[in-house]
Design brief:
The complex is a heterodimer of chains A (about 170) and B (about 425).
Chain A lengths: L23 H24 L9 H22 L15 H32 L13 H4 L1 H23 L1
Helix pairs in contact in A: 1-2, 2-5, 3-5
Chain B lengths: L1 H14 L4 H16 L6 H9 L6 H14 L2 H13 L5 H14 L5 H18 L4 H12 L1 H4 L4 H10 L3 H7 L1 H22 L9 H15 L1 H10 L5 H19 L5 H34 L2 H12 L3 H16 L4 H7 L1 H10 L4 H15 L7 H9 L4 H7 L4 H13 L2 H11 L2
Helix pairs in contact in B: 1-2, 2-16, 3-16, 4-15, 4-16, 5-6, 5-13, 6-7, 6-8, 6-12, 7-8, 7-22, 8-22, 10-21, 11-25, 12-24, 14-15, 16-19, 17-20, 18-21, 21-24, 21-25
Classes of the chains: A mainly alpha (about 170), B mainly alpha (about 425).
Chain lengths: ~170, ~425
Amino acid sequence: MSTQPQERPDDGSTLGLGNSPLYWEGWIAAALLMVLTFVIALQIVGRLGVLPGQVWTEELTRWLWVWAALIGCAATQAHQQHLRMDVFSNHLPPAARRVSDRLQQLLGLAVVCYLGWQGWRGVLRTWHNESVTLPVTDAVLYAALPLAMLLWAVRLLRELFTRQSKQ
Amino acid sequence: MTLTLFIAGWLLLVILGTPIGMSMVVSSLGYFLYAGTGLGFSAQRIVDGLNSFPVIAVPLFILAANLFNVSGITNHLFGFASSLVGHVRGGLGHVNILASLFFSGMSGSALADAGGLGKLEAKAMHDAGYPQDLSASLTAVSALLGPLVPPSIPMVIYGVISGASIGGLFLGGIIPGLLCTIAMMVMLYIVAGRRSLPVERRTPAREVARLFVYSLPALLTPVVIIGGIFSGLFSPTEAAAVTVAYALLVSSLIYRQMSFKKLWSCFYDTTIVSSAIAWNLGGVAMMGVVLAMENAPAQMTVLFTTWADGPVVFLLLVCLLLLVLGCFIDLLALLLVLVPSLIPVATTFGIDPVHFGVVVILTLMIGTITPPMGMVLFVVAQSHDYPVHKLAVAILPWLLPLLIVLVAMVLYPPIVTFLPNLFMGT
C-alpha cells in the first residue's frame, strides 16, 4: 500500500464519496470492519447452535469497532468528511477564512497530540488489566487511541504543509 | 454560569467551522482544565464511549444501505412504486414518495436515500418534465422516511443514550412513517391538480406482479429485522449484521450486481462515514462528563417545569426548541448533546421513552431539511442540480404534512406506542 491515495472508478456506491481517492488508513479500518462483520456472524451462528458458541465474540467485536472507528478518523480527515457546519465560515472574507482554517488546523493538531499522549498513558495504566474474555490485556483496546491520534496528526501535518505550499 | 460559558464556547467553535466532534473535545478539555479535574481520564472517555455493542449497529446499518444501493435495487423499487401509483394525479411525485418508503425499510439514513435513490428520482422526474423545485422538494422531504421506518440509525443512537428499547423504537416509527407518507401524498395530490402535473400510463396487473416479485427480497428486509429482534433470535446489533448478510446475498445472488470491488468500496465508504459519527460519539462521551459535573439534566428539569405544566406542553416546547436549533446545529450533535439532558425531564412528565424518542427523531429529521444547516438539503440540491437557496424556499410548504403528523404524535401518543405495546406488552 502506498501512502499516496488511490483513484477508484465511480460505482455509484453510497454516501457521496463517489470518485474520491482511497487512503491507506481507510483500507485498514475497512478491513477491520470486514473482520468485525464476520465475528458477529460467527456469534449469531454460534448462538443459534449451528456452530459451537464462543464467549469472546462480543468483546472482540467491540474492540474491532473501536479500532476501526478510531483508525478511520485519519482517513475521514483526509476525505474532509468530519461533520462540520461551514455555512457561517463560508461567508467570512477570504483572508479571515484562511486564518480561521489555519488556526483550526493547529488547534486540531494540538488536541490530537494531547489525546495521543493521554491515550498512551491510558495504555500504560491498563497494561496489567486482563480482558474479560480475550487472552490479552485491556491495553490492546486503549492502544487504538494513541495510534489513531498519531495517524491523524500526520494527516493534519500533511494538510498544513501541502496547503501552505499551494498558497 | 460555567455551563452557559461552556455551551457558548462550544457553539462558537461550531459556528467557526470546527468539526463538531473536535469542537466537543476542545470545549470539554477546556472545561476540565478550568475545573482542574477530569483531564487525566479524558482520552479514555473516548474509547469507553465507543466500546459499546449496541453502537455497532450504526456502521452495520450504513453498510447494509450501501450494499443495497450498489445492488441496483433502487431501480426495481422505483419501477415497482411507479407501477403502483404512477397513474395517480401527481404521477412520479407519488412514485418518489413511495419508493422512499420502500427504501426506508432497508436504510436507516436519510442521506443514503437522498444520495442513492435521490439521483434516480431526479433523473426520472427531470426526463418526465416535472418542475425542478417540486422534484427536489419531494426527494428531500421523502428522504426523511429513512430514519422513521426501521431500521433507523438515529433510533439506534437514541436507544443507546436513553436506554430505551431499540426494537420498541423501530416498531414505534412504523405508524408515523406511514402517516407521513400518506400526508405527503395527499398534499401532492392537491398540488398536482393546481400545477397540472403529468401522469404515467397505468401498468398492467401482470407487470405489477412481475415488478413486485423482483422487489420482494428488498421489501422483506424490515420483516427480517423486526422479526429477528422480536422472535428473540437477534439483538438489534446482530439484526444489523444479518441485514448486511441479507443485502449481500440479495445483491450477489438475486440481482447479480455485486463484485469484490463494489463490496470493498461499500466497506471503505462505510468506514469513513462511521468514523465521522464515532468521533462525534467520542466527543459526546467527554461532553457528557461535563454536563453531569454541571448537573445539566437537573437544570433542564427546573427550566422546563417552570414553563410546562404537562407532557403535551413539554413535548411541544421540546419540538419548538429542536426545530429552531435544528436549523443551525447538526442532527447528530443535538441528539447526542441536548437530548440526553431532556430524557430525565420527559420521564418526570411521565412520557414513554419510546414516544419521546420517535417525536424527537422526527423533529430532528425536519431540521435536516431546513436551512442553513440542512444536510439532506445539500445532498438533494447536488443530486438535482438545483441551487440550495431556492430549494430551501421551495421545500417550506412540504414541511406542513410532516408538522401535522408531528403534532398528531404529540397529542395522541398511541400513534407511536400502539405497535410497541402490542408486540412488547409494555
